[in-house]
Fold these 2 entries.
Entry 1:
Amino acid sequence: MAIYSTPAEVSSEIEALVKEHVSMDVDLSPDTLLEDDLSVDSLERVELGVKLEKKFGISLPDDKIRQSATVGDLIQLVLDAQNASNVH
């Protein structure tokens, strides 16, 4: 597990992980829709969540992952989880 200290680093790593997960080399932005643009259903979002947990050494609630609609939602979930773990 590497440490990603800035939101830009976190965003870049998440975008790379999403591209790998969907096997697509597409330009992503925080506004990219997981389901409509990338055909990622709720089960696949949970799988992505597990990959994010492993990559960043965090815990993400499944319900929050399933509710994530955009790449930006995933980025914010990771940033929030990192901030919460730094508080304790």
Entry 2:
Amino acid sequence: MWRRTDPDPSGTPETRATPRDVEVLERVVEALTEASTSIGEVEDLARETAAATQRVSDRIAGIRTSSDRVTAGTHATSEVVGRPDAVQARITDVLEEQVRMARAVGSAA
């Protein structure tokens, strides 16, 4: 790579790059540029993934809220539908009691 040569006659050390050194440095710069681009793409994908995850989470929360409302509505409807059944059962009990009493009065007379 970088090679230090013997000092020149003035006594100052001389450094120079060989063509191979320049080629290696160019490859390093190219690799770093590509890595930087890849890192940027990964960061973009991470941001997009986070945003998509948040949207999915929001949708799930909305579905849960809707589901809770439907469940509550179904329960309320069941209670309303059950009231006439309870009333009808009570009416049937009262009528049966009246029939028994009428029979008892008819047989006593």
